[in-house]
Amino acid sequence: MGEMIITEIQESDRTWLREFWIKHWGSPKMVYSLGVRHCDQLPGFAAWDGQEVIGLVTYDVHDDQVEIVSLDSLREGAGIGSSLLAKVEERAAQLGCKRLWLITTNDNLHALRFYQKRGYFMTKVYPNAVEKARQIKPEIPLLGNDGIPIRDELELEKLVRSKGAS
Predict the structure, then answer these.
(1) Which domains, from first to last, does the chain contain?
(2) Choosing a second label site near 113 at 20 to 30 A (CA), which of 20, 105, 122, 144?
(3) pTM (2 decimals)?
(4) What SS3 class is residue 162?
(5) Average pLDDT over residues 27-51
């Protein structure tokens, strides 16, 4: 891999973002129990290796909180996800936000490991929440990673360290 460059998503990126989402997720719509998010319309950062997108994170700001809506790394173990997450955490601190949070599903053990290693804590469990999402997007599979039934949503959070905090 060459040198990874991270850029902020611009309005001019919306076309390739939509294509990225369709290629990797089947749709730019993220459906979960809280509703539908159009990931190709959210702010975020992209990781590049030359002209190739190798990672993407999208987020949304709600008052003094930042929700991480999506995080994709196309090359596992290369620090792409960690670098993108650090950019969102940096942005949250710049905006004066107090909390970062995200939702993932019970089968996504990789994400649970990833976020907990980076200081995120599980704060809420939404039992059977994926059933609500399936009412909107029936193509959400019944089984996920490692054959685990996809049923619950888990909320993780990390408090934002203000500038100058040690």
Answers:
(1) 4-159 (3.40.630.30)
(2) 20
(3) 0.90
(4) coil
(5) 90
